[in-house]
Amino acid sequence: MFPLLLAFLAAPAATAADVPSFWGRESIAVAGWPTGLLSTTIAEVRVPLHRSDSIVFQNTSAGLGVQIQAAPAFVVAGPRLSFAPIDVFEVNLKAARGWFFGNGLGLMPFDELSGTLSQTRGDREAEGFGSQMWLLGVEPTVKAKVWKLVMFDSWTIDYLDIDRPADIDSPYTYEALRDLVISFEEVTFEHQAGLLFEAMPGGDKPSLRFGPTYRDRWALNSKDRSAAVGVLIAAKPGVKPAVPTLVGLALWYVIDNDRVGPMPFLAAQVRWEVDVPLGKRPGI
Questions:
Q1: What gap in Å lies between CA 206 and CA 197, rounded to an integer?
Q2: How far apart are CA 49 and CA 281, in angstroms?
């Protein structure tokens, strides 16, 4: 499914107001190889932290809110805390409850780490099962800009506790969001880094960034792993909140039990973001 990190790739905002604000993001992503559809909604109340004329203390904040992710295979929802004490570093903490649908698109029993291609899983659709889970996660990101080069390095570390149905004996299950075969109690890691050229600056102008990126995912207990390299492009053609950020991604697998070869992972995302001082209505 679509990398979680791409939330960072929104067009750089103008300097935030030094007052509490409502911050929200809605994104819709589609992907192929594997096929996926994901909606992510985040809403937070944010308060400014130490700010100054320094270029690294322009948009510091702490926020508290909720995050909801919905796909044909699952819904995951829960509280979220964001903390950005300096503009080159931010971290998100989250806790959530998840519900998996027994429609053959999500959880499926696995005895080994291969066999995750969409067609293979489609042939086993009747084996899919519904369940619930608890999730705890942390998402640190380091980012920097030198001249017109934007560098980022981000991690997503999640603890998952999936309820195992009484009639399931297999040690593993396929999990669609991470596209990994995992244990029912698992710790998953996602690391993504990139170097993007900023052709258009964003802020109070349209933005355009593109460049190479790398993504690595693995599970601590099952030992499943998937790594890929490729290119990423992010653009916001206008400055108003109604104008979305558009993101495209192509990744070629270099480590994977099923997908290493010429076929890339392809994804596209449309995202809207607002940051409005409390008591003020957003412009469109």
A1: 14
A2: 23
Task: Report the alpha-carbon angle 18-272-29, nearest 5.
Answer: 140
DSSP per residue, 242-283: TSPEEEEEEEEEEE-SS--SSPPEEEEEEEEEEEEETT-PPP
Per-residue pLDDT of 47-64, as tens digits, reads: 999 999 888 898 999 999
Q: Could you tell me the pLDDT band of residue 11, with boundaries at 50, 70 and 90?
A: very low
Question: For 12, which DSSP code?
Answer: P
Instruction: Say which residues have a Cβ less than 8 Å from residue 272's Cβ, sequence separation at least 6.
Output: 25, 26, 27, 241, 242, 244, 245
Joined together, the tokens standing for residue 62 give 């702490």
Amino acid at 8: F
Distance CA(28)–CA(26), nearest Å, equals: 7
Confirm if 190 and 217 have CB atoms less than 8 A apart: yes
From the CB of residue 203, how many other CB atoms can be counted at a distance below 10 Å?
13
Phi (first) and psi of residue 57, to 5 degrees: -130, 45
This prediction has a pTM of 0.92
- The separation between the first and the last C-alpha atoms of the chain, rounded to the nearest angstrom, is 30
d(CA 200, CA 222): 43
Which of 178, 176, 173 shows the shortest CA–CA distance to 156?
Answer: 178
3-state secondary structure 157-203: EEEEEECCCCCCCCCEEEECCCCEEEECEEEEEEEEEEEEEEEEECC
